[in-house]
Specification:
alpha/beta, Rossmann fold, 6-stranded mixed sheet, 4-stranded antiparallel sheet, 12 helices, 10 strands, about 30% helix, about 15% strand, globular, binds adenosine-5'-triphosphate, transport, ATP-binding, ATP-binding cassette domain-containing protein, P-loop_NTPase, ATP binding
Length: about 375
């Protein structure tokens, strides 16, 4: 199972420019989390801080007992091996074919024999649907294939934490949908803790167990997906609806006068804030044939314990997604009065805000999703 990442009071500035301050959150072990935020709010800086590549001036990031911010470099280097990183462009070496790119971390960081390296590389290529393309150079394949190759490379050292920086950037909507499915399938197969940075609302709505958002140098929220997806916080509502009305402007945050004009409806062409028409769509299920995500049951128990602290809309969305208790069976069996009481009505309505706990035959995406992937 993946490892929890505990972030406490993290603050980062470059010179006099503060990027974010006092960020506190926990990425629950083995669950998938998404970090949203307008451009330039420091999402990539946050990812790099988690692995100790960027050093915040205050706070801590604890991974397997190591503080990635304040520990000795040798310990941070060791702990970094727990992470798999997928960067925006795949970050592949242009002169190496895909096989050698994916084999690179194994050759660099392990003493494995070439036959073992070949087995692992081919298995990871299979997971991301790239078997047959291993001889190609990065320049000879599409952007989406490069991303998947980057993901395969992120997986070769069996990471327990996977960080993906904008896995959708530059992809068309169909490839983005396949990528969403790939990320869920990956979580089902390896049960790693995952954090995905994205602007993409489809990924945000369908992939994560937990969601957070950075804005105005602060973490606006972080918690179960239902909290952010039902939030009426203006910045969250604006982001999720893609509206021009709200606190997010083109370059910087809007000034108070613009916000006041919008509030009284006089801002030209801003469009309505469409918060109320948002619907909670079901979270993706792993592709048929893959194991269930172990995170689902763990998360259900975890979230049950926090229901009382959540806003009402989030609470009812979560309650609706919980498996409904079976009606009690009658004590009088064998055809006596009431013998039918308690039989489960297959037509009974179910509340389907989040069906992730009930395995169903999800549509298969044969072309781009893993064909199978038992981990060794
Ligand atoms: N090494 C650095 N030195 C100075 N400033 C930096 C450095 N790295 C990032 N920044 C600044 O930090 C801010 C946040 O950048 P970051 O790339 O994390 O934003 P982001 O939220 O990931 O944006 P986008 O969604 O557009 O990718 C930017 O203003 C950027 O210029």
């Amino acid at each position: 199972m993946g490892i929890e990442v505990a972030v406490e009071g993290l603050t980062k500035s470059f010179g006099r420019k503060n990027i974010w301050q006092d960020v506190t959150l926990t990425l629950p072990a083995g669950e998938v989390s998404v970090m949203l935020g307008p451009s330039g709010t420091g999402k990539t800086v946050f990812l790099k801080s988690l692995i100790g590549l960027i050093k915040p001036e205050h706070g801590s990031v604890t991974v397997d007992g190591v503080d990635m911010v304040n520990s000795r470099e040798r310990d941070v280097y060791e702990a970094r091996k727990l992470f798999g990183l997928m960067f925006q462009d795949g970050a592949l070496f242009g002169s190496m074919n895909l096989f050698d790119n994916i084999a690179f971390p194994l050759r660099e960081h392990t003493k494995k024999k070439e036959t073992e390296i070949r087995r692992i590389v081919m298995e990871r290529l299979d997971m991301v649907g790239l078997v047959g393309d291993e001889g190609k150079l990065p320049g000879e394949i599409s952007g989406g294939m490069r991303k998947r190759a980057g993901l395969a490379r992120a997986l070769v050292l069996d990471p327990q934490i996977i960080l993906c920086d904008e896995p959708d950037s530059g992809l068309d909507p169909v490839r983005t949908a396949f990528t969403s499915q790939l990320l869920i399938d990956l979580n089902a197969q390896i049960d790693a803790t995952m954090l995905i940075v994205t602007h993409n609302l489809d990924i945000a709505a369908t992939v994560p167990d937990n969601m957070g958002m950075l804005f105005r140098r602060n973490l606006v929220t972080f918690g179960p997906r239902e909290v952010l997806l039902t939030s009426e916080e203006p910045v969250v509502a604006q982001f999720l609806s893609g509206s021009r009305t709200g606190p997010i402007g083109m370059s910087e945050e809007k000034d108070a006068a613009t916000l006041a004009r919008e509030a009284d409806g006089s801002a030209a062409g801003a469009g309505p804030l469409n918060a109320t028409s948002r619907e909670l769509v079901p979270q993706l299920e792993p592709t048929a044939g893959l194991p269930e995500r172990k995170a689902v049951a763990r998360r259900r128990e975890r979230v049950k314990g926090m229901l009382g602290q959540l806003p009402p809309a989030a609470r009812s969305a979560i309650e609706a997604s919980m498996p409904q208790p079976l009606p009690k069976r009658s004590s009088q069996r064998n055809g006596g009065p009431g013998a039918d009481v308690g039989t489960v009505d297959p037509e009974a309505p179910t509340l389907a805000v989040d069906t992730s706990s009930e395995p169903v035959d999800a549509p298969t995406n044969a072309a781009d999703t893993p064909s199978n992937g038992e981990r060794t």
